[in-house]
Amino acid sequence: MDLSPHAIAEVRITLDSFFEAYGRGDLDEVMSYYLADERIIGLGTGADERNLGWEEHRAQIERDLGQSSSRRLTIDWFKAAGKGDVAWAATEGPAWAATEAGEFTATLRMSFVLLRTDDGWKIVLGHGSVPMPGQGEGQSFPGE
């Protein structure tokens, strides 16, 4: 059975709440949105940002929060679907962080797979990316 509009709204609320907790830098709350399981997967834009399992993922989030004194993530675009107790979602929106190197701003694209549990929707896979500079509209690769 396809996800109902109500279930898709729950997924959106989950992801909005996840981004708010991340913005506040609350590691425990951020991790509460993930399934506590060693099979979860996380991918980021950094060369070493490939996490398998709860502990690796927690360490990555802790590093992210530790390397920024404040941060803000907003969802401007959201699409989701699913079947049964599994949902997949994609988001896009502005990201901002204050770091030792200065301010970071970018458009952040994220995709998620979530599982419905007795405790609500939990993220089992998350992937974040930032569009590459030098890759214009209509181009599949950066450059001319």
List the keywords:
7-stranded mixed sheet, 144 residues, alpha+beta
Protein described:
- This protein is an alpha+beta fold and 144 residues long.
- It has one domain: Nuclear Transport Factor 2, Chain: A (Roll).
- 27% of the residues lie in helices and 40% in strands.
- It contains three helices and seven strands.
- Strands 1, 2, 3, 4, 5, 6 and 7 form a seven-stranded mixed sheet that branches.
- A hairpin with a 2-residue loop joins β4 (77-83) and β5.
- The chain is globular.
- The N and C termini lie far apart (45 Å).
- 19% of the residues are buried.
- The model has no long low-confidence stretch (mean pLDDT 95).
What's the β-strand tally?
7
Indicate the structural class. alpha+beta
CATH topology: Nuclear Transport Factor 2, Chain: A
- CATH class, named Alpha Beta
Spans where pLDDT lies below 50 across 5 or more residues: none
State the share of residues found in helices, binned by percent. 25-40%
Summed up, the domain count is 1
CA radius of gyration is: 16 Å
Outline the fold blueprint.
Elements: H1 5-24, H2 27-32, E1 41-43, E2 50-52, H3 54-66, E3 70-73, E4 77-83, E5 86-99, E6 102-117, E7 120-129
Give a short summary of the structure:
The chain is an alpha+beta fold.
